[in-house]
Amino acid sequence: MGVSTVGVVGAGLMGSGIIEQSARCGYNVVAREIDETAVTAGRKRVRDSMDRGIQRGKFPETVRDEALDRITWTTELRDLKACDLVIEAIVEHLERKRRLFAELDLVTGPHTILATNTSSVSITAIAAATKRPHKVAGAHFFNPVPVMKLVELVRALQTSDETMDCLRHFGESLDKKVVVAKDTPGFIVNYLLVPYLLDAVRAVADGTATVEDIDTAMTLGTGVPMGPLTLLDFIGVDTTLYIADVMYDELRDPKYAAPPLLRKMVSAGYYGKKNGRGFYDYANGG
Ligand code: 3HC
């Protein structure tokens, strides 16, 4: 089954990236946010990101303008009715996701595939909230979505081959490399990435080195674009803690046990780049 219209629920950091990339790759997009304020913020996020792409010479203004024309913004879930594929990118909360999928099951056509961008919640549990579990799967993108070349597809226990084939084709059409993972905590990337990030926090807490030196060491020593603490600020200190807690709950492996410093930073409201302070202070330009 071909996809021509894509619905995206949630236009935060990840959702807005999925909206942009889908529209730029020629899909009609119905973008749904919870209220007008969130719609305005999502619309701005999509436009600002494409403006950055234009400034860096990635594509001309016509590409942005045509992409923006393909996006319909709405606050109504029922406007997703005609979508061939709906991708959910709301907050990481199992019950809220299950409620949303049960509603999507009612408002979308029987052919519609429902995907979740979750990084930590069980796809199998989300699929079970619908009467079409064979048409539900994970499509985990990476931040910033227009730049990062990967999408991890996650197969729930109930997902059909046809659904996986359709999502693979869709992922490749967004100019992404597709990998497939089982529905296990963290899938591939976070299974390996989260212990590394938590170890970096432990190294700070133990006084192994300064935040800057840990990042410099890992950037120059292993050739990654960002050191672990810059990356943690970029993903979100609170988001990382949430993912680690979900993974620890499932796996009971100490590798995923959040160090006290991470928890304290969240208690202090140091969420990272998004609110101006994390391991670094972004108040004066970083
Ligand atoms: N569309 C297409 N390309 C765009 C673009 C857009 N809207 N906006 C920017 N770009 C391009 C730029 O032109 C530039 O390309 P170039 O290098 O070929 O010139 C590139 O994207 C990056 O440019 P930026 O100006 O945005 O900034 P930087 O050069 O400083 O790079 C970064 C920033 C891309 C974030 C880089 O530091 C990086 O790759 N960091 C690692 C990010 C990462 O690991 N993300 C994954 C996190 S884990 C995750 O998301 C999973 C979750 O579950 C936790």
Calculate the terminal CA-CA distance, rounded to whole Å. Answer: 46 Å
* Text of the CATH class of the largest domain: Alpha Beta
Radius of gyration: 19 Å
Averaged pLDDT, please? 97
Assigned CATH superfamily of the largest domain: NAD(P)-binding Rossmann-like Domain
What strand order characterises the main sheet? 3-2-1-4-5-6-7-8
Ligands, deduplicated? 3-hydroxybutanoyl-coenzyme A
Task: Please specify the SSE layout and strand pairing.
Layout: E1 5-9, H1 13-24, E2 28-32, H2 36-55, H3 61-69, E3 71-74, E4 85-88, H4 94-107, E5 113-116, H5 123-127, E6 136-141, E7 150-155, H6 161-173, E8 177-182, H7 189-206, H8 211-222, H9 228-235, H10 237-251, H11 260-267
Parallel strand pairs: 1-2, 1-4, 2-3, 4-5, 5-6, 7-8
Antiparallel strand pairs: 6-7
Helix pairs in contact: 1-2, 1-3, 7-9, 7-10
Bound molecules: 3-hydroxybutanoyl-coenzyme A.
The site of 3-hydroxybutanoyl-coenzyme A (3HC) has 18 residues, from helix 2 and helix 9.
Structure description:
The protein is an alpha/beta fold. It has two domains: 178 residues, Rossmann fold (3-Layer(aba) Sandwich), CATH 3.40.50.720; 85 residues, N-(1-d-carboxylethyl)-l-norvaline Dehydrogenase, domain 2 (Orthogonal Bundle). The protein has an eight-stranded mixed β-sheet, with helices on both faces. Helix 1 crosses helix 3 and helix 7 packs across helix 10. It binds 3-hydroxybutanoyl-coenzyme A. 3-hydroxybutanoyl-coenzyme A binds next to helix 2 and helix 9. The site of 3-hydroxybutanoyl-coenzyme A (3HC) has 18 residues, from helix 2 and helix 9.
